[in-house]
Amino acid sequence: MATNLNSKVLSLPQISGKTTRTIAVLGSTGSIGKSALEVIAASQGGLQAVILVARSNAQLLLQQAQEQHPRLVIVTNPEAAAGQSWSHLPPGTELQIGYDAVLDAVAADDVDMVLSAFVGIAGLRATWAALEAGKVVALANKESLVVAGPLITRLARERKAQILPVDSEHSAIFQALHGEHGRGGIRRIILTASGGPFRNRKLADLSNVTVEEALAHPTWKMGKKITVDSATLMNKALEIIEARWLFGVDADQITVVIHPQSIVHSMVEFVDGSVIAQLSPPDMRLPIQYALYFPERRPGIARKIDWSTVMELRFEPPDLERFPAIRLGIDVARLGGTAGVVLNAANEAAVEWFLQGRLRFDQIVPICAKVLDSHSFDPSPTLETIFGLDAWARKEVARWI
């Protein structure tokens, strides 16, 4: 918690006579990035995207550049950049290619905040570079904390940087805790999960799940990898680990409840029995805007709850036989060290095998557990050790398959 609640509060800088916050959007062509640009476009000059970064969707990046007029666009995949004509870049917008360009860009003086929305461990080095430069990081790349939580939070403290959560669940917890002093009053953090498309599917039928079924999430529209994670509830396992480091609580202080309506995004229970929750329709533009404007609240474009209609909110404990990933997440959060990077890498690899039709849906979590059990645990890894184990775990998944 000290990383966020007790670190510096961002004040809006004065630029060209206007109150404007400048933002580098990493992963601008993904679902979080696109929602962020909608928030920025609706800000009426309060927010400005000065850097846009994409891995391979060069065509959409060019379109975004034409709409946002950033000073810099970066494509990290050279082949994707080479396949796109850049003759229609707006005047004053520069093109750079390769991941190293991102590491330099996030430290630029004209960047107030970095929205880290890369998918997977690919976002770790960029998040690290931004924190090392003392930037405010709006963190949508949960993997940075999953694989290197102690290192990331220590770096933020040392550099007097700030981490603001963008995930809807962690944003909800952050909002519930904002204004609370110290950690002594927290009994537990309660992460909510929709339960995904298979909440009521018979356990025996999970072996027959198709890719199309796994990608049909009942509430959220997201990228393929996170949608599959939401179906296995591995996303909740990763969020448990992220919350452990982001808020400085013990793994045993984090629990998960199934909440199909996805209106309550998470809750904090205090030692006196009070529970503070954050409610809103499922719309990622709200937590994105909260992070980009923090500590202020502004009118926004996210959907609002219609209190004139009948609404029911249901909560139920998760079925740990159906969703063994939750127990795995708690175990990894308790262990720390290299457990997070191995679980994350094994899951990324297993999901990719599933999407290719070469692994059954019900095999994703068990194979992650096997790879996790077979690795040589290191309680205090370096960043290079983490990247080495990431590569090892992916190869190990292929070997098991």
- Number of beta-strand segments: 13
* Cα radius of gyration in angstroms: 20 Å
For the record, the CATH architecture of the largest domain stands as 3-Layer(aba) Sandwich
Structural class: alpha/beta
- CATH-assigned fold name of the largest domain: Rossmann fold
CATH level-four homologous superfamily name of the largest domain: NAD(P)-binding Rossmann-like Domain
Layout of helices and strands, plus pairs?
Blueprint: H1 2-5, E1 14-15, E2 18-19, E3 21-26, H2 31-41, E4 47-54, H3 58-68, E5 72-75, H4 78-82, E6 94-97, H5 99-105, E7 113-116, H6 124-132, E8 136-139, H7 143-158, E9 162-165, H8 168-177, E10 186-193, H9 211-214, H10 224-232, H11 234-246, E11 254-258, E12 264-270, E13 275-279, H12 285-293, H13 325-335, H14 339-355, H15 364-374, H16 383-400
Parallel strand pairs: 3-4, 3-7, 4-5, 5-6, 7-8, 8-9, 10-11
Antiparallel strand pairs: 1-2, 10-12, 12-13
Helix pairs in contact: 6-7, 7-11, 7-14, 10-14, 11-13, 14-15, 14-16, 15-16
Describe the structure.
The chain has 401 residues and is of the alpha/beta class. It has three domains: 2-166, 3-Layer(aba) Sandwich (Rossmann fold), CATH 3.40.50.720; 168-281 and 306-330, no CATH class; 337-401, Rna Polymerase Sigma Factor, Chain: A, CATH 1.10.1740.10. The protein has 16 helices and 13 strands. It has a seven-stranded parallel sheet with strand order 6-5-4-3-7-8-9, with helices on both faces. Strand 12 (264-270) and strand 13 (275-279) form a beta hairpin. The longest helix is centred in the last third of the chain and has 18 residues, at 383-400.
